[in-house]
Amino acid sequence: MTLSEEQLNAACDEAKKQGLRTLVHAYRDAVRAATVAGCTEIEHGTLATDDDLGLMARKGVYLDPQAGLVIENYLRNKEKFVGTPGYTEEGFAAMEKILPMNHDLMQRAVKIPGLKIVFGTDALAGSHGRNAEEFIDRVRDGGQDPMQAMMSANSIGAEAMGLEGQIGSIAPGLQADIIALDGDPLIDITAVRRVAFVMKGGIVYKNAGRGAIPSYAGVQP
Predict the structure, then answer these.
(1) What gap in Å lies between CA 53 and CA 117, rounded to an integer?
(2) Helices marked H in 41-154 — which ranges?
(3) Which residue from 128, 154, 158, 143 is spatially nearest to 189, judged by alpha carbons?
(4) Dihedral of the alpha carbons of 117, 122, 127, 132, in degrees to the nearest 10
(5) 44 bridge partner residues
(6) 20 to 30 A Cα–Cα from 142, which one of 30, 97, 100, 192?
(7) Model confidence over 183-205: pLDDT tens digits?
(8) How far is the C-alpha of 125 from the C-alpha of 70, rounded, in Å?
(9) According to the model, what pLDDT value does residue 125 have?
(10) Which sign, positive or negative, has the C-alpha torsion 208, 211, 213, 215?
């Protein structure tokens, strides 16, 4: 923990009074401390216990577990990072150990009744435009139900941001932000790589024919 419980309590309490959200990058004991403080959302949550996750569910704290994309991107682009400030061989060795920990957290989190899991990544350089891989990690490696993975990036994410009255669902009065995939992600989660239709604010920006997008869609097959 880099903040004391008193600091967390003060920050999250003041944010609530101002109608603001609080997102905390938390690991181990910091997960419970941030939850008790009433913070809105936990980022990562690595090494949280099942009891910690259960407490989050009871208090309505959202979890953004970031199952794999960020670490995988670091490891895939190791040669670009090593030697730059803050990136060492030792650090990359630690990342290789953290990745299965992230998968373990996800596997346990999806079994906690009522825990609200949202979709997000730290989106460091190199992973922009590749968020589809996080969906795949969550389902393939984290054991999340494909529909829950879809909802985590739509209706649950909108709710976490307090924007459920504007975005996150297809309903009258909400913004017409819609995508369509070439394939059924409930059967094959890799379909998220093939975005064939994009509508933003009711305007169609992309409308590709079925089969027009390669199955690997720009990532290594």
Answers:
(1) 11
(2) 50-59, 69-76, 78-81, 89-109, 132-136, 146-152
(3) 143
(4) 10
(5) 26
(6) 30
(7) 999 999 999 999 999 999 999 99
(8) 10
(9) 65
(10) positive
E-strand stretches of the chain: 23-26, 41-44, 62-64, 178-181, 195-200, 203-207
168 vs 152: CA distance, rounded Å: 10
Residues 6 or more apart in contact with residue 54 via CB below 8 angstroms? 112, 115
Tens digit of each residue's pLDDT (9 = 90 or more) over 32-51:
999 999 999 999 999 999 99
3-state secondary structure of 149: helix
**Which residues, 6+ apart, have CB-to-CB distance to 172 below 8 Å?**
none
Nearest to 162 by CA among 23, 13, 9: 23
- Helix/strand/coil for 196: strand
Give 56-73 pLDDT, tens digit per residue: 999 999 999 988 998 998
- Quickly tell me which residue has 């879809």 as its tokens: 150
pLDDT in tens, 91-139: 999 999 999 999 999 999 999 999 999 998 887 767 778 889 999 999 9
Q: Which two tokens stand for residue 171?
A: 């309903």
Q: Please tell me the total number of residues recorded for the chain in this structure.
A: 221
In our burial notation (b when 16+ CB lie closer than 10 A, e otherwise), range 31-57 reads bbbbbebbbbbbbbbbbbeeebbbbbb
pLDDT of residue 124: 77
Which of 161, 24, 164, 44 has its CA nearest to residue 109? 44
